Every structure is written in structure tokens, then in C-alpha cells.
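Bug report (template v2)

What were you trying to do?
Predict the complex of my protein with 5-hydroxybenzimidazolylcobamide.

What happened?
Run completed; filing so the output is reviewed.

Input:
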Amino acid sequence: EKEEQFEKLKNAIINQDIEGCKNLTKEALDAGLSPIEIVNKGLTPGMKVVGDRFENGEAFLPQIMMAAKAMQGAMEYIEPELEKGGGEEERVGTAITFVQEGDIHDIGHRLVTTMLQANGFDIVDLGTDVPDDTVLEEIEKNKDKKLLLVGSALMTTSMLGQKELMNLIRESGVRDYVKIMLGGAPVTQKWIDEIGADATAENAAEAARVGINLM
Ligand code: HCB
């Protein structure tokens, strides 16, 4: 029953069914499925299929854009539910969230930001395509707080930008003031170790747990 609903959600993304995806998401929430499970077991696997098809030349940009639109429609129901979650009264710290320069993929970034907020972080959301200088300025501005930097990169090119950013953070002398969690589909623990960040996470729920542990 549950599995069937996840399968339907996944297919709604794959088939770029914008209305259907929205309605199925609402139905699933009304039926008591958790918003996180809907994202992790339904919508995201669908996006993965679309991405793989694009890579193999079986799908084209307009199709990815429509699939993203379907996911964004679903998010209109998911995000308010995530914001209720956690129920953490105590503030954990401040999270500066952003997507690496050159990269406009924002669906995962928004999910991670929402989950951190729901779990007690005050948020400074810098949005997408953020230049390194802006990130450095924001760390400098907030360095007297308990601070977590949360960056996303969805492409191999923007992932390489994370290395440059880590170098700049060290050179500018603010590394000790901030914990750094970097993620996005191509990011691995090996990469995190190589560039000297503190952690990564597979998905938004894990990002909240990891973020809290870092504080
Ligand atoms: Co886009 N795209 N795209 N795309 N796209 C990818 C990312 C490819 C992998 C597809 C492929 O080829 N297989 C590919 C990158 C290849 C590479 O470099 N390895 C790619 C490409 C090439 C491009 C363009 C260059 C295409 C073109 O124009 N020719 C272009 C780039 C534009 C740019 O950024 N400058 C482009 C454009 C687009 C859109 C606009 C059509 C659309 C984005 C819409 C939007 O975000 N508003 C899009 C989409 C949707 C995708 C795929 C299909 C899905 C991404 C997504 O939303 N996933 C993606 C394929 C894929 O990733 N497999 C494809 C769902 C979310 C929930 O997952 O991984 O983003 P997530 O986030 C997770 C997780 O990583 C983690 O938690 C999140 C929530 O669970 N997480 C963190 C994320 N950030 C974290 C930070 C932390 O600290 C911790 C955890």
C-alpha cells in the first residue's frame, strides 16, 4: 500500500505529471505518510531516473524542467509539513546555506534549509549561484555565533568550486569560526576529507542530524 504510493509519486515525476504529482503528494500526506519518506522514497528516486535518462540522451532539458516543476509543486505541500517537524524549541545555532557559484539547482538546497530550520537552526539563506566572496563575507559577519556553513553542488564543475572555497576560507583566517557541511549528489565522504570540510549528508533528514552533531 505504502510502497504503491511511493511508486506512484516516483512515476508522476518521471512522467512530468505536474497536477498528478501535487495531488498524489497531498493524498499521501493526508493518508499519514511522512513528508520525509515521500521525498526520499517517492520524489527523489523519480528525479534520479530523469537525471539518468538525460545523461544517457533518452531525455532532454525540457523534460527535466517539467519534472523539476512537478517536484516544486509537491514541495508546496511538503515544506509546510517539514517546518512543523522537529519541534526543537532550543536554538541550535546559525546555518548559512547556499548553492555553489555557477549552479542553480535549488530543490535539494531548499529541502536541506527547511529541515535545518525545523530542527532549531536560525537560517541565513544565500540562495543559488553564490560567489565565494559572498560566502566569506557572511561567515565574517556571523563569526561570533555558533556557525554552520551548508553548501550544495549538483554538478561536477560546481563541486570542484567547493575545493576553491575551502582554500579561501582557510586563507582568510575564518576556518576556526565555522563548521562546514557540504553536499549534493556528486559529493562523497572522500571528497570532504580531501578538501578539508567537516561532513556531508545523503539527504535532508540526515543533514539535520549531522548539522546538530557538528554544533
Ligand atoms: Co540539472 N543536472 N542541469 N537541472 N539536474 C543534473 C544535476 C545532472 C546530474 C543530470 C545528468 O547529467 N545526469 C547534470 C550534472 C552533471 C554533472 O556535472 N555531473 C545536470 C546538468 C548537466 C544540468 C545543466 C548543465 C543542463 C544544461 O543546461 N545543459 C543545467 C545547469 C544549470 C546550472 O546550474 N548552471 C541543468 C539544469 C537543470 C534544471 C534547471 C532543468 C533542473 C533544476 C531545477 C531546480 O533546481 N530549480 C535540473 C534538475 C532537476 C536536475 C536533476 C534531474 C535532479 C536534481 C534534483 O533536484 N534532485 C539532476 C539529476 C541528479 O541529481 N541525479 C540533474 C532532487 C534533490 C532532492 O536531490 O541531490 O539536489 P539533491 O539534494 C539532496 C542531497 O544531495 C542532499 O540533501 C538533498 C535533499 O535530500 N544535499 C545535501 C543537498 N545539498 C546538501 C548540502 C549538505 O550540506 C548536505 C546534504
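What did the reviewer find?
The beta strands are 93-99, 121-125, 147-152, 179-183. The first strand starts at residue 93 and ends at 99.
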